[in-house]
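Notes from the 1:1 (GR / supervisor)

We went over the backlog. Supervisor wanted to see one worked example end to end before approving the batch request, so GR pasted a single chain during the call. The sequence is below; no edits were made to it. Supervisor asked that the structure be written out right there so they could see what the output format looks like.
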Amino acid sequence: MAQGLDRGALRLRAAGGRIRYAPTVQDDMDLWSMQYDRLKLSPDSIALLGASRIAFGVDPALLSRELGGRPVAMLAVNGRYPLAALRALAEDEHFAGLVIVGIDARGMQRKH
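Structure output shown during the call:
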């Protein structure tokens, strides 16, 4: 097995270290909307809001398991502040769950 890994590393070095990777899921507004809709399935659902720190730092499936199977929706958007989504959830009478927000001080400015 170790030899197989070594050969793979050599092939990678021989190729100049370049790996072509294409994501298997296109992150877009439709996928975000599907996640938002999941929040309405249960009164104890959890919304994760923020930017890259939440998106890449929190595993929704693991969080759901650790919290007894509560539905968790990933609504974080890389490079965007979450205030619009937080406002939408606050005004949504069908949402009664928990919101976990990752935000820095700049994100609390009115322009966001």
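Supervisor's comment: Helices lie at 2-14, 29-38, 52-57, 60-66, 83-91.
Batch request approved.
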